[in-house]
Automatic annotation (TrEMBL):
Keywords: Cell membrane, Membrane, Transmembrane, Transmembrane helix. The keyword Magnesium does not apply. It is a multi-pass membrane protein. The chain crosses the membrane at residues 6-27, 39-60, 66-86, 106-123, 143-163, 175-195. This is LysE family translocator. One of its GO terms (cellular component) is plasma membrane.
């Protein structure tokens, strides 16, 4: 249960603060309009992700009886998380497209998130296998993972929207870049754990 909570927290805050289409939209809407617009974008995963989670869990569950297949998925997930961590470590600055546009913040956030490959990749290769594995010990652990993941995924974006609204120099400062790189190191560590799980499932360890 503690592993589920820790994994959810690390993955949630890392996904929430890592540069990407949705975070870019959160920040650009905040800068162009107001903090409320940025917060509405941040809430988009709560609207879009449930169908994605259900479909990906169904697929992963169907494959879970074939341990080598699930092991390969876990290995792919570990490599994906390691790649995300490496990207965070390598980041130099955040670039935004701040062309003035009409504010339909929530709709933009929903469309951006549902058309992004990241939720599908995450829930198929990382989140799905974690949930399926933790379901062996009951329903509390997988629910704890999802709750902690989305609390920090959405919460960190909301905090960033508020911080950017108050200090528009935040993104060019060293604190944000240091935080992103530190989270990248945590992601790489978690990736090694996921890769170890995958190797165990395919019978290598």
């Amino acid at each position: 249960m503690l592993t589920s909570l820790t994994s959810g927290l690390i993955l949630g805050i890392s996904a929430g603060m890592a540069p990407g289409p949705l975070l870019t939209l959160v920040i650009s809407e905040t800068l162009q309009h107001n903090v409320g617009s940025g917060i509405r974008v941040a809430l988009a995963p709560l609207i879009t992700d449930l169908p994605i989670i259900l479909v990906m869990l169904f697929i992963v569950n169907e494959l879970s009886s074939m341990q080598p297949v699930l092991g390969l998925i876990s290995l792919a997930g570990g490599c994906f998380v390691f790649y995300l961590g490496y990207q965070n470590i390598q980041i130099k600055r955040v670039e935004l497209d701040l062309q003035a546009k009409e504010s339909r913040s929530l709709l933009k956030g929903v469309l951006t998130n549902i058309l992004s490959p990241h939720p599908y990749l995450f829930w198929f290769s990382v989140g799905g296998p974690i949930v399926i594995k933790t379901m062996d010990s009951g329903t509390v652990a997988p629910l704890l993972f999802m709750f902690s993941f989305y609390t920090l995924l959405v919460g960190s974006k909301i905090v960033l929207a508020i911080a950017v609204g108050r200090s528009k120099q935040l993104l060019s400062g060293s604190l944000y870049l240091t935080t992103i790189r530190s989270l990248g190191l945590l992601l790489c560590g978690l990736a090694l754990f996921l890769i170890g799980d995958g190797l165990s499932l395919v019978g290598v360890l």
